[in-house]
Specification:
- The protein is an all-beta fold.
- It has one helix and 51 strands.
- The strands form 14 sheets. Strands 1, 3, 4, 6, 9 and 11 form a six-stranded antiparallel sheet that branches. Strands 23, 26, 27, 30, 31 and 32 form a six-stranded mixed sheet that branches.
């Protein structure tokens, strides 16, 4: 009893959910009939299927209901069965559920191993196929029937798919099929269209586009089928006339047969409109047909080609244009007798593109003019301004230069000579030199001049100003005096730097390179090189200090005629070791001994000499004398 309650609850919920559904239990059908009074037809493919009646059998979802469709009249041959259930006159419906009794050929073997497929079709085209295995295996459950719910059978929800027939096919050992309690739903008003979108419409501004077509139809309609175009579009049932924003098609017996609709962009459309053409009718689901468009305008040039200047022959150049709504380009040249089309022949390339390239044009093309004709999907074409090719062929070189004459000086200069170019040439020297063709007042270094013509073309040349490697100067070798107060000094001068030959000026009219016979003192010479550059060299001739000497002590002869006298000299000055020489006797030391006075009553003089390096001498006399009464003194 609990089982029946649960089945009642399920059936109630199912019927509530699928309101307006119809369940066919076949109780009003005639036994052996294959044409059913509710508009269905049974067609057998394998086995003979028709209405069968046996009390206590069948299943309406709650209890046995005695009548159902089966193939009990002809189970053979074995190996699966197939039959089709279709609506009369191709009317459509949706299959919601059905109860199936699947058994072997004796109709009692419910524990089958095969599968059962349900294939839904519409106008002969398969809409779905749902296949499953595993069914009720004994009559104690649902009287042996399996509930087939198309919302889940085969793993997909096909319960809302519109069909006009369905085919039941078994495999394996399922040779007997009984079908009961067929639940279905007739469609509400239905509208159809042959496409869901149209190709992009294109036209020129102010013109209607070419038309595109599609078909519409309707069934079970209770009102007109309405085709409505979105803003910017129009529809008609004729390709060449009768366009408007809507079309109303009147159904016959609820049906609008397949009708061709033409759609196009209206002539007053703006801004590339898009949207949906709708196909509607009361209570029918609207069909949308997506439309997009491109409304073209005549080509327009936003950036004109500009003049091009080639500063050096052999360089490439180009002319370019920026245009909208363009589909083609044709460049033209005017060599002096009007514009003519040009093709991709040297030196031209890109003659049918937005950019014309001139590859190393010859100087003969100077002042040629170029323009481009831009075409598009719409007319008129656009013609660009004319741009002029200018070829300067500017070159420059240093034609003369004067190097710095004296090291450290700034009397250098350089002159540039420029050829070619257009218009007045200007000059700019760097890092110094001014803005003339000749730069002056230059010190040693590298100077670059930039020459610019009226087209802005530039060329450079460089002058390297040199100078003597060093300033005029000289080195000296001085011979100093060996004796104080002598005139034996000399200066040996060697000039350096500058540019020879040289001249010399010691002052006082002396112009020799070297000097001799010089007294001690400072000397200065001015050296002048071949460029007139001068340098002053100083030299100093030195002398030793003068030698001075004095007798610092002496011992006279004690007795007349004796030889015990002595004298000591102290000397200063000179340089180095001093030597001594006494005369007529006395030796070579600072003290002379063994001195005599041979002349009674008279002095005897002794002369000593102090010598420096054997050259410089200083002499002094010492006297030894006799004194009366036999007392002698030197």
């Amino acid at each position: 009893m609990m089982k029946y309650y649960l089945q009642l609850i399920f059936l109630f919920l199912s019927m509530h959910f699928i309101n307006a559904q119809t369940t066919e239990n076949f109780e009003a059908e005639s036994v052996g009939s294959s044409i059913l009074i509710n508009g269905f037809t049974i067609t057998s493919q394998i086995g003979l299927f028709d209405i069968y009646q046996l009390n206590g059998t069948g299943w309406n979802g709650i209890s046995a209901d005695n009548k159902y469709i089966d193939n009990s009249s002809n189970v053979s041959p074995p190996g699966g069965k197939q039959f089709t259930v279709s609506r009369t006159n191709g009317a459509s419906f949706t299959l919601k559920s059905v109860w199936l009794y699947l058994a072997t050929s004796n109709a009692m073997g419910l524990n089958v191993t095969g599968s059962c497929s349900i294939t839904g079709k519409l106008a002969g085209a398969t809409q779905y196929t749902a296949t499953q295995t595993g069914f009720v295996a004994n009559t104690s459950t649902n009287n042996g029937f399996t509930f087939i719910n198309m919302a889940s059978y085969g793993g997909n929800n096909n319960s809302n798919t519109t069909i006009d027939s369905f085919i039941i096919t078994t495999t394996g050992d399922i040779d007997y099929i009984a079908m009961d309690a067929l639940t279905w739903q007739a469609p509400t008003s239905v509208v159809n269209s042959s496409v869901s979108n149209l190709n992009n419409f294109t036209t020129c501004s102010g013109n209607a586009s070419a038309a595109q077509s599609f078909t519409v139809s309707g069934s079970s309609l209770t009102a007109n089928l309405i085709v409505t175009a979105p803003a910017g579009y129009e529809v008609s049932t004729s390709s060449g006339s009768g366009y408007g924003t809507t079309i109303a098609l009147t159904p016959s017996s609820g049906t609008v047969s397949t009708t061709t609709i033409y759609a196009r962009l209206a002539a007053n459309a703006t801004g590339d409109p898009s949207g949906n053409i709708t196909v509607t009718s009361t209570s029918a689901t609207t069909k949308n047909i997506t439309v997009t468009s491109t409304i073209n305008s005549p080509p327009s040039i936003s950036i004109q080609p500009s003049d091009s200047t080639i500063c050096t022959v052999g360089n490439n150049t180009l002319f370019s244009v920026t245009a909208s709504n363009a589909t083609g380009y044709q460049w033209q040249v005017n060599s002096g007798s009007g514009f003519t089309n040009i093709s991709n022949v040297t030196p031209y390339s890109g003659t049918t593109t937005a950019t014309l390239t001139l590859m190393a044009p010859a100087s003969t093309l100077n002042n040629y003019q170029y323009r481009v004709i831009v075409s598009g999907a719409c007319t008129p074409n656009a013609t660009s301004n004319a741009a002029t090719l200018k070829i300067s062929s500017l070159s420059a070189s240093i034609s003369s230069q004067t190097n710095v004459s004296c090291n450290g000086g700034s009397n250098g200069s350089a002159t540039v000579t420029a050829t070619g170019g257009i218009g007045t040439l200007t000059y700019s020297w760097a890092p110094a030199g001014g803005s003339n063709a000749t730069a002056s007042g230059l010190s040693a270094g590298s100077y670059t001049v930039t020459v610019t013509d009226a087209n802005g073309c530039t060329v450079t040349a460089t002058a390297n100003i040199t100078q003597p490697t060093s300033a005029v100067s000289g080195t000296t070798v001085v011979t100093n005096l060996t004796c104080n107060g002598a005139n034996t000094g000399a200066i040996n001068l060697t000039p350096t730097g500058g540019t020879g030959p040289y001249t010399f000026n010691w002052g006082g009219g002396i112009t020799t390179e070297d000097r001799t016979g010089l007294a001690a003192g400072s000397y200065s010479v001015t050296i002048t090189d071949d460029n007139g550059c001068t340098g002053i060299v100083n030299a100093t001739v030195t002398q030793p200090t003068a030698i001075t000497a004095s007798i610092t002590s002496q011992t006279n002869v004690a007795c007349n005629g004796g030889a015990n006298g002595s004298a000591t000299v102290t000397a200063t000055g000179g340089t180095g070791t001093l030597t001594y020489s006494w005369a007529p006797s006395g030796g070579t030391a600072a003290t002379a001994t063994g001195l005599t006075n041979r002349f009674r009553g008279y002095r005897h003089t002794y002369l000593f000499m102090v010598t420096f390096r054997g050259y410089c001498r200083y002499s002094y006399r010492a006297y030894c004398r006799y004194i009366y009464r036999n007392y002698y003194r030197c």
